[in-house]
Amino acid sequence: MQEAENSALAAAVASSVRRPIWRVLIDWNDDGVLGTAPLEIIGDDYIEDIEVSRALSGGVGAGASLVSGAAGGQATVTLSGVYQGRSLATAMSPLASDPIFGTDPVLGRWARVEMGMVTEDGPVYLPQITGTVRSIDLRGGKVVLTIADPSDGLHAPITLPYWARGNYDPPRWTKLNYPYYCRTQWLIDYALRRNGYGAPLHPGAIFSATFHGSHIAEIGTVYATNIENSELVPPLAEFDDWWVPGPHGFVAPRGSWSTRVSRVPWTFGIADVIGLGSYPVGVGVSLWYYAGTNHVSSSNNDVRYLTALKYGPGVDDEIEVTLAANGALNFGIGGDGYTFQSTQNTAGNEIGWHYAGVFVMIPASGRITLAWRFDTAANTATIPRPSFPSQPREYSWVHVDHCVPISDVQWWLSDAPPAGPGDWPGYGYDGSDIGHMDLGVNVISKLPERIGVDSWDFVQEVAAAEAGAVGFDEEGRPFFLDRRTLTAGTETVEKVVTSTRDLATLDVTLSTDTIRNVAEVKTVSGRQYGSENATAIFSAVSADQFDTPANTTRDFVVWQEPFTHPHYYENSLPYYDTATWDTVDNKRGITWGFSCVRPDTNAEISNVTVDASPAGPRRMQVRVRNPNNFAVRLATTDGKPALRLYGYPILDDAPKVARIEKPSSIEVYGERSLDLGGGDWDQDYDSCVELADSLLDELRRPVPVLPAIDVVGDPRVQLGDTLEIRSPGGVAESIKASVVEITRRASREGLRDTYGVRPILADDGVEDPDPPTEDPPGPEPTARPYFDEADWHWDPIPEDPVLDSNSSSISNLLTSTSGGANRILNVVRYGNTLRGPDGIDGSTPRYTVAAEYAGSWGPAFPSGATIPIPAGTQNFIPPGDSKEWRDSHVAIADPIDNRVYSMWIATYSSSGGGTWSCGWGGTAKMLGDGSSPLADGREYIGGSTGAGISRYACVVRIEELEEGEIPHALFFSTDIARSGSSNFVYPATKTDGSNMAGVPKNSTIMEGQRVQLNPDLDPDDYGLNQAEKAIMVALQRYGAYCGDNGGTRMAFLCELAPDWGGNKNNPGSRYAAVGITSDYYNLSKIPWRIGGVPQLRVLKKWDGSA
Amino acid sequence: MAYHDPFLLGPLGRMLELPSPDAEGMDAQYERIAGEHRSIRGFTTVDMLAVKRVWSFPLSHRLAEDSHALIARWAAPLTTETLRLVDPLVPNRLSLDVSTCGGSTGLAVEQYVSAGAQPTRIKPDTRPAALDGLLDGAYRWSPNTPARDWWLNFGLPTPVTEGEQIVFRGWVRGDSTSVEPFITELDAADDDTTTLIDSPITLSSTWQEFSVSVTVAAGTVCVLAGLHVESGSAGRVVDLMGPQLGPSADLPAGKWCPGGGAPAVVIADFSHAYSRLGRSTMTIVVREQ
Q: Of A122, A505, A748, which has the smallest distance from its Cβ to B49's Cβ?
């Protein structure tokens, strides 16, 4: 509501006899002033009628009765009359003789329509729309002007910078407590700035960051480190929130007084600045900062950094802006510590935002010229030249530390200082609020890719992603209202309209169309994390790849997998002689170093230096320094290539899924889904859940639909205003509603309004359960520490998978108890001993393991492979050992060879210093490196299971049961595995199925087939212990693969616990603690059947496809 | 002029005396331009936009040839000049809005201030007895540049005829400064010919009526009236109410008549009826702009 406090205007509007007024102001001569010659004010002399239409459209979708979306507006003004003896149409026509505007059609000029009332205190005009002249239509002796609001001109192409919080984080798997993720305000401001709103960039800007809701730089690359809650000290007592009110109506980061106190590179932001060039160098910096109560009252001169630019190679070679606790603002040139301005900033002793700017001209020789500005005060000086480096560093960078709230930071290069106040970046422009800009509720951790998109489309998209409202107000100023504002604004009634006085029409429709009571939220943070597990990133592929001539330094660029920490390459690579290299040769992927020979003599050379450093996201630069008078080769004496690098892979954060529902509504109306539609802007779980919950709160009930209502015109009413509509004795006693559409007409019929409204329902007292506040059930961020290319192993089963045509009959048998059939856990006697990758390193004893049946069935392991088996590894061997009747599995994940070795009938003998042997086994790749074979959990040599699936895959680990969650599919053997060597499906590579139970073929299951327990069952309903519940949830989410023949209907494979004490009936205390107290533990509590109906289903393919 | 005086029509300097209407007389109607809203329950809200007068002159007497041609020319229209109508029934020839200091429309009224300071419309706490109950609008003028004279003109140039005795009246008050009412005579070329300035009036917090009169000289086609303030200290305040400009005989001291006696008009209709050979009856409909 405009001028809500103007009682004279309110009285004039409410009077039964009113004097409405209107006029149109146009900046005809494009000088920035509305109402200029030749038609200064278009008033009653010319105006026949005006129609202004403004509407909020879009938002969360059709049927949703929410105030959200994008506001667009347009005015149509019909003019007639005589201008200087000619009709106005003739006078304005560019095709007529001597038109008043020449041949310039004056399209695109700023224009404003105002309407108002004559009041007791005189005329009061209120803006109705401010925009530009979109068209001039000359017809029938009349002039029809169309004025569109500024969104009509918001079309500059938008390309978002690359920014992702987290790419540089050290390995971690929990959500970062980082307070400064990108907010919607920054995104909208970013688009507006590209269309001329806000402070312009200095033409020589080398760094610019507004901090209007994000640390992302407009120019430069800000990446933040050490901005965790625990590390930030609020700089000012008056600010509680992370984002605080900043200048010009934007937010600013609260900052931290714990920011750096010395020139150690402890920074919030770094921007690469390539090449300051040679002297003379002119560098300027400008910013707004907040001086608070601390800085007025304190006598402490403890200094903190606001921002700095590194210009030389030394630690102290910085141009700095610092703030002392007592409010003294200093500009300094580091160098030898010279400070050229330490006078306390008197303006800084006033609480509030202040402008600071400094320009430094460093000549090739002689004194330095300075110019600086504190708010309105400006000065210049020359100072002696400190001991500068001979040249500025080729690669410079900017730090932004913000020890207090900071905004609009720019660094720029220029040949001269700013000439006047208006030339200081961010100072000279109109410092009033740009409009109303909320922070927004969305939390963005990675900017999605947007290249060259339309500005207005972009602004609408980001506002819609959080059901906010965006547009331009009546004065042409942009606004962005988030849900907190939109919801709070509905509580105050701005105007009461009644059937007695105002309403000309009122119809009400009640429908269930608008009801929404359930929302599925899927958030994808887009963040990436460094793995905690090192892996090979490069190995030389040929012996001569790094040949380096005599007395030469050669640089090579090699490609590798992305890594996170280049710090491991700060030192030169270690050298190994051939004998040592051979001993570590099998450690491919984990070690790093090189071996070196002289190619012509094959003599080993140890004085070569090899360095490696990152040269890009996927590139490494390898530098070989050969000080010898002969060429060298990075190879062993037996001709093997000998250079290896390793690092830590970058992994994607996993999506999070939540379901938010309103049971009170579902119970009455059934489930009605709300599509948030945020797409790749839905990144933060907590904010998306909060948003969805608030939307459902508004949509869970039937909402009366009011078609457009005609009322007596009121020039004060704006979009978003809350009305109370009263029709006592009529169709609606009293309704609160938000105005989402206004058509306001001024003509000889007077001033009339038509409103489109969305009702606001009163609190009905219903309290639905709170939305999930913790990470919901679903795939946790998983590092896939092994078999990372085995989607079949790690991916959940999709909804509504396609089932095998025999699913019912197979399920009937799998869940049957007929003939004593049951479903058990193999924990001890057929349990699986697992070791590695943790606990296996270069010191782990390695064994050449002979496979007894390799001669008949083929090799189980690569030729010459040695298997690391930790001392004390135990597996189940029955008393009176009979190899034919035991499995005695041992599976080893070897991070050095990047292999998983699985051994069947594994047997240790202490003779001969200790040996291991096995019946047979198999080998799979542990982690993928982009080359074949894949690390997909399927054995590429041998076969340790009937299906060829690695023994290491799908095993229930004791740690998983202890944590109560199994993040992968399970493995079971069965007595109804289909026979026939070709009867297997992916991921099986083969089958040993023999249908031991002798059931009909159509009721047998093929090895490789995946089964799923009914996902709609609630695990809490069956009195399960911790282990049973974890297994049931895993069977619902990931299912289980048929992988082997066995004597039980379903026997699920578990790990032999490391604390197993040797008792075949006692799986150990760790299993007992989660409820598994015996081997062959019967899973009878799991609801395999309910009311005789099988609850298992058999998928046609592992991924649920057809 | 008086009630028996004729209507004058035409541009300044060439106003034509309209013949006496027929025995049936002439019509002068007040046309209300307004929009009406009716609520569901019938409540009516009126948006008043304007009230304009329409005069209808049935003229059966033969006009002089040149008069006929002039009216035909104005009705065509073959001129871009603004037509004025002098209505003898409304002696105050300032516009209604000027005479009420903007009270009739509530809008700002055209004033011409030589030094650029626009008057502000106010509602005075007290009014002269002659105006009490009639209007409550006044202008407050605060000359703010002490080193120069200030001239405040009211309204458009007002048509007059040679030999007329014209008076400019009003009520003023202020804070110890003095003002001089004036009338300026303008010729057909819009040049000042004579400015008659009355003796300075020392203002106080009490309303005082002022007047300045002039007998229209030959060659004068219109007059402007206003107030003059000599240079003096800054921050002086002059309040003005109820300005009147018209024939002295019809605007006696101590009384007030609302304005509207010389509006700008357009000829909305111009028709002939030929009753017999050589004899026609003409009707002119004039609409206030």
A: A748
Provide the whole-model pTM.
Answer: 0.68
Contact across the interface for B106 and A119, Cβ inside 8 Å: yes
The 3 state secondary structure assigned to A771-819 is CCCCCCCCCCCCCCCCCCCCHHHHCCCCCCCCECCCHHHHHHHHCCCHH
Cβ neighbours of B48 in A, within 8 Å? 17-19
Nearest to A1003 by CA among A1039, A976, A980, A973: A976
| Cβ of residue B116 closer than 8 Å to a chain A Cβ | no
Among residues 501-520 of chain A, which lie with CB inside 8 Å of chain B? 501-506
Q: Model confidence over A639-694: pLDDT tens digits? A: 988 888 876 666 677 778 888 999 999 999 999 998 877 788 988 888 899 889 98
Q: What is the pLDDT of residues A1011-1063, one digit of tens each?
A: 999 999 989 889 899 999 999 999 999 999 999 998 899 999 999 988 888 88
Return the residue of B nearest to A12 by Cα.
B47
Burial class (CB in 10 A: 0-12, 13-18, 19+), B227: buried
CA-CA distance, A22 to A47, in Å (whole number)? 9
Instruction: Please answer yes or no on whether B105 and A712 come within 8 Å at the CB atom.
Output: no
Distances (CA, A) of A599 to A444, A579, A585, A605, A916: 55, 17, 20, 10, 40
Determine contact: B39 vs chain A, CB below 8 A: yes
**Taking chain B (289 residues) in consecutive chunks of 10 residues, what is each chunk's mean pLDDT?**
74 85 76 89 89 86 73 80 91 90 74 67 83 81 65 79 93 88 88 78 92 93 87 78 93 92 91 74 88
State how far the Cα of A710 lies from the Cα of A370, in Å rounded to an integer.
65
Whole-angstrom distance, CA of residue B269 vs CA of residue A527? 79
Using a CB-CB cut-off of 8 Å, the residues of chain A touching B38 are 504
Q: Is B243 helix (H, G, I), strand (E, B) or coil?
A: strand
Of the listed ranges A124-133, A221-230, A838-847, B68-77, the one predicted with least confidence: A221-230
Structure tokens at A980: 């026939």
Q: Please, which residues bridge with residue A873 across strands?
A: none
3-state class percentages of chain A: helix first, strand second, coil last, to nearest 5: 15, 35, 55
Residue where the block lists tokens 């480190």: A225
Closest CB from B45, B105, B123 relative to A118: B105
**Alpha carbons A1096 and A1098: distance in angstroms, whole number:** 7
Interface test with B, best of A13, A17, A727 (most B CBs within 10 A): A17
Decide if A123 and B106 are in contact by the 8 Å CB cutoff. yes
Do A20 and B37 make contact, defined as CB atoms within 8 angstroms? no
Judged by a CB distance cut-off of 8 A, whether residue A20 touches chain B is: yes
The Cα A34–Cα A47 span in angstroms is 17
Q: Shortest Cα distance from B136 to chain A (angstroms)?
A: 11
| Lowest-confidence segment of A36-50, A91-105, A382-396 by average pLDDT | A382-396
Lowest mean pLDDT among A676-690, A746-760, A980-994: A676-690
Cis peptide before A933 (omega within 30 of 0): yes
Answer for the pair B39, A499: CB distance below 8 angstroms, yes or no.
Answer: yes
Looking at A386-475, list the stretches that DSSP marks H as alpha helix, in order from N- to C-terminal side.
455-464
Best mutation target, A17, A19, A508, A747, to test chain B (most B CBs within 10 A): A19
pLDDT average, residue stretch A325-348: 60
Q: Does B46 contact A17 at a Cβ distance shorter than 8 Å?
A: yes
Long-range contacts of A794-797 (CB under 8 A, 24+ apart): A794/A967, A794/A968, A794/A969, A795/A1038, A795/A1103, A796/A1037, A796/A1038, A797/A1010, A797/A1012, A797/A1015, A797/A1037, A797/A1038, A797/A1039, A797/A1099, A797/A1104
CB contact under 8 A, B107 and A18: no
d(CA B177, CA B159): 31
